[in-house]
TrEMBL record:
Source organism of this protein record: Chitinophaga silvatica
Name of this protein: NADPH-dependent oxidoreductase
Organism placement in taxonomy: Bacteria, Pseudomonadati, Bacteroidota, Chitinophagia, Chitinophagales
Gene Ontology molecular function, alphabetical: FMN binding; oxidoreductase activity
This protein's GO CC annotations: cytosol
Highest taxon, organism lineage: Bacteria
């Protein structure tokens, strides 16, 4: 499968990208084609109009549109800011509609505290449903992110290792089932 991992944090000193890159490596190791869309490296301006409606869409939005559209499934990674998901991720998502339609989307939350971004994940999951995508029921919560990875960016927290494996198993299962159904009905 082709999978896009959208990392929704651009803040200095950010930590959530660590789990995004970790998950992408795990999926690569399982022979999936993974493309990381890291909003810290994509110059996506504030939304004026979404894809298909804007007369002169920014190049970054056009490129992201193609990347998301060609993905079979998507993982969204967000830190929790003030009890919600990041504004930069919401801005990016608002550009697109058809790119998410009937796709499997896994949601990952990150926090410095013990709850792993649960509020952000709940709210983001609701947005995923409202954009017509299939939200993976198992969400990945990464608490205490500052201690979850070592200096080599290796995931060392045992609970997060187990949780991320369960999340990836559920993500892959649902994405395979939905994509298999899409291919069967297209034939």
């Amino acid at each position: 499968m082709k999978i896009a991992v959208l990392i929704g944090s651009i803040r200095q000193g950010r930590q959530s990208h660590k789990i995004g890159y970790y998950l992408s490596q795990q999926l690569n190791d399982k022979h999936h084609e993974v493309e990381v869309l890291d909003l810290a490296t994509i110059s996506l301006p504030m939304l004026e109009e979404r894809v298909g409606k804007h007369p002169q869409l920014p190049d970054a939005a056009l490129k992201m549109s193609h990347q998301l559209h060609t993905a079979d499934a998507i993982i969204l990674v967000t830190p929790e800011y003030h009890g919600s998901f990041s504004g930069v991720l919401k801005n990016a998502m608002d550009y697109f509609s058809a790119e998410f339609h009937k796709k499997v989307i896994g949601v990952v939350g990150v926090s410095a505290g013990k709850f792993g971004g649960i509020n952000a994940v709940q709210q983001l999951s609701q947005v995923v449903i409202n954009i017509g995508a299939y939200c993976v029921p198992t969400r990945l919560l990464v608490p205490e992110i500052y201690g979850a990875f070592n200096e080599k960016q290796e995931l060392v927290n045992e609970h997060t290792l187990r949780s991320s494996q369960k999340f990836l198993d559920e993500f892959e299962w649902l994405a395979s089932a939905i994509n298999g159904k899409k291919m069967a009905t297209a034939s």
